[in-house]
Amino acid sequence: xxxxxxxxxxxxxxxxxxxxxxxxxxxxxxxxxxxxxxxxxxxxxxxxxxxxxxxxxxxxxxxxxxxxxxxxxxxxxxxxxxxxxxxxxxxxxxxxxxxxxxxxxxxxxxxxxxxxxxxxxxxxxxxxxxxxxxxxxxxxxxxxxxxxxxxxxxxxxx
Length: 158
Fold this sequence. Notes:
Oligomer: single chain
Number of strands: 2
Order of helices and strands: HEEHHHHHHH
Strand content: 5-15%
């Protein structure tokens, strides 16, 4: 989801996913949310409600001057959260790459990953989902249980 859209995210959009009408590709689409993501956003709404903040926005100001209004820029908040978590060189864009890679590593078809990220081509999705070298080792190791060298070698060598 583009960062600019996420800043306009309203709680009413959370039924099945997030509807995005202002996308880079200029095509409206729905971005599905898994249960954990949906719950995190609903927990945010509950916390705002406990604090007496009545706003439709997921990302809203809590200070008196702008209270309840949409936050226009998450740059500082995101950087602070990364610092508290001990993460360096992480941006919202990094999260898109991570999502793509995790979906591929979970065995999801590249077409699904493309659609979730909103890419118009598989080529762009492939750029996002490139595995690190250590993941390639895991990939080839995943077929070890299928190899029975003694019996396979005997069949092949015969």
